[in-house]
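Sequence, please.
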């Protein structure tokens, strides 16, 4: 399954309702699982981003749907990176001329 690194920043709405963040995270986890994905890690971070999540999904299309839904809720803004494992990286290198 494809892996995604999701960098998040709280919006004004998200910080004002920060005490409900754990419930929102649980709802997001269930939503990801309902589409065949998995939230593998979640961190509150200090620095440029407020949260970092690692998720797996059945496809890029499923990931986009999840991310659009997350954005629609208005609590965070996301920057998402598609990630490749070391094994996947090795396979990609084999395709080089």
């Amino acid at each position: 399954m494809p892996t995604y690194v999701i960098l998040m920043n709280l919006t004004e709405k998200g910080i004002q309702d920060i005490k409900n963040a754990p419930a929102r995270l649980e709802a997001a986890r269930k939503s990801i699982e309902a589409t065949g994905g998995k939230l593998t890690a979640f961190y509150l971070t200090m620095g440029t981003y407020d949260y970092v999540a690692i998720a797996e999904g059945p496809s890029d299309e499923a990931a986009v749907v999840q991310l659009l839904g997350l954005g629609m809720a208005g609590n965070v803004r996301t920057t998402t990176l598609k990630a490749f494992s070391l094994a996947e990286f090795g396979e990609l290198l084999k395709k080089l001329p």
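The longest strand covers residues 3-10.
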